Amino acid sequence: MEDPTKSMEDLFNPIIRNRKVLIPGKGNVPDYSNGTKVTFHFKTEASYSDDDAEFDDMTMIDDSKSLNKPMELFIGKQFKFPLWEEWIKHMRLGEVSRLSLDWMLCQDVYPLLSKSYRNFANPHDHDDDDPARRSHCCGMAKQTGTGHKDLDDLINRPPKRLRFTIELIRVENPNDVDKEVWLMNEKEMQENVPVLQREGNQLFKAKKFEEASYKYRKALAILEQLMTREKPGDQDWLNYDLGKIPLLCNLSQCELYLQQYYNAIRHTDEVLEKDPKNVKALYRRAKAHSAVWNVDQARKDFQRVSELDSSLQPMVKQHLIELDQQIKRKTQEDMQLLKGKLF
User: Fold this and answer.
1) What is the value of pTM for the model shown?
2) What are the pLDDT digits (tens) for 17-43?
C-alpha cells in the first residue's frame, strides 16, 4: 500500500527546494519528530500581477511581527497548511526563507488559516458567536464571509499568487514542551491541575501576576476539558466543577492587581454561582465593582462580606468610607466640569 506521508513529501519537496533562503540559519536541521513544538513568524503577501519575477506591487495580508504574536504548530498534529509544516521541517533555527504559490494551490486553506491565526492573535477582535462566521471551506467562506474584510476580498477577488516568508524562531523537543491541553491524555490532565495551581501560587507570591494568571487559566481549561468527558451532574463532573473555585478565586485576585476589573467580576460571579457564601469571591468582586464605579453592587458585596465574616467588619468599614470619599470627589469634579461648560 502506498505511504500517504511519503506521497505528500514527494508532492511538496520540489516546491520547498525552490524556496528562496534569505537568512540561512544556524547549525543542522533539527529533529522534527512528532510532537515537536515549532514557533515561527510569517508574512503573507498577495500579487495580482501576471509576472512571475520578484515584484514590488504586493498587497500585505498578514504579518505576525506587526502583531508581536508568532504562530505555533506541533509537528504531526494535522496543521491546517501541510505545505508549511513540511517546509518548516527543512529549516534550520533562525532561517528566514520565502516561496510563492499559485492561488489555486492555497485558496481552500489560507483564508481559514489566516482567520484562525487572527482570532488567536486578537481574541477580542472577532465574533465567533455568530454561526454564520464558522466556515469550514473556502466555498462556505464565500457565502458567509470570514469576519475579516480583507480576507473576504481575497476570496472574492483572487490574486494570482501568494508569497510567504517564514522565520523559524524556536524548536522545542516534545519532552520539553509545555503541553497544550488538547495534546494531553486524561491522566496527564488530572496530574497537571494541582501542579499548575502550585506554580500559579508561587508566581503570585513573586508578584508575577501575568504569569500566574496563565497557570490558573490553563488549569481551568484542563478542568473544562475533563468535564466534557463526564455526564453533567455526576460525581466526577461535580468534583471537577468544584475544583474550579480556588483557581477562579486566585485568578480574580491576579486580575485585580492587573486592573482587569471586568474579568475579575466575571470570574467571581462564576465562583458565587457555585458557592454563594464564598467570602473571598464577594470581597474581590466588591473591590472590582468599586474600581469601575458600580457603587451599588460594591456596597451590596461589602455588606454581605461583613455579614458572613464579622472579623472583616473593620476592613469593610474602611472600604465603605473610602468609597464614599471617592463618590464625593467624583461628584465635585463633575460639578466643576458642568460649571465650566455652563459659564
Assistant:
1) 0.53
2) 889 999 999 999 999 998 888 999 999
Could you tell me which of 290, 219, 206, 227 has the C-alpha nearest to residue 251? 219
Confirm whether 36 is domain-assigned: yes
| Confidence band of 10 (pLDDT split at 50, 70, 90) | confident
Task: Note the pLDDT of residue 166.
Answer: 97
Would the pLDDT of 11 be above 80?
A: no
> Residue 231 falls within a domain, yes or no?
yes
As beta bridge partners, residue 141 has none
Q: Report which listed range, 94-103, 112-121, 170-179, 223-232, is most confident.
A: 94-103
User: Using alpha carbons only, what angle is made at residue 116 by residues 147 and 5, rounded to the nearest 5 degrees?
Assistant: 135
Calculate Rg over the CA atoms of the chain.
26
| CATH at residue 60 | 3.10.50.40
For residues 87 and 212, membership in a common domain is answered with no
Whichever domain contains 182, its CATH number is: 1.25.40.10
| DSSP3 helix / strand / coil % (the chain, rounded to 5) | 55, 15, 30
For the record, the C-alpha cell of 307 comes out as: 455579614
At how many degrees (to 10) do helices 313-342 and 279-291 cross? 20
Give how far the C-alpha of residue 233 lies from the chain's centroid of Cα atoms, to the nearest Å: 29
| DSSP sequence for 126-185 | S-TTSGGG---SHHHHHHH--S-HHHHHHHHS--SEEEEEEEEEEEE-GGGS---GGG--
Sign of CA dihedral 291, 295, 297, 299: positive
> How many folded domains does the chain comprise?
2
- Domain, as residue range, for 215: 178-258
Q: Are residues 9 and 79 in the same domain?
A: yes
143 residue type, one letter? Q
On average, the pLDDT of the chain sits at 85
